[in-house]
């Protein structure tokens, strides 16, 4: 029996996404999260409660995208090609 564990590879779509994502600087997502929190606070001060909550919820996805970006750079598909 062959060991198929080493045979795993990303599909074409995932590879294309990783290639494009790796081009973005990691701190872009941190600044986007901080920006959404700042805009949310500004909207809250302007008494636009629902819009402030909507924009404030963008921070978590931006931070998750930043983690994905960092993982792609450190452990992405191109790392297997280097070994």
Automatic annotation (TrEMBL):
Full protein name: Uncharacterized protein
Protein species of origin: Mucilaginibacter agri
């Amino acid at each position: 029996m062959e060991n198929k564990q080493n045979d795993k590879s990303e599909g074409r779509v995932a590879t294309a996404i990783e290639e494009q994502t790796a081009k973005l600087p990691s701190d872009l997502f941190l600044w986007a999260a901080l920006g959404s929190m700042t805009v949310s606070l500004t909207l809250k001060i302007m008494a636009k409660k629902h819009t402030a909550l909507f924009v404030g919820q963008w921070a978590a996805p931006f931070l998750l995208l930043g983690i994905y970006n960092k993982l792609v750079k450190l452990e992405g598909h191109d790392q297997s090609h280097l070994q």
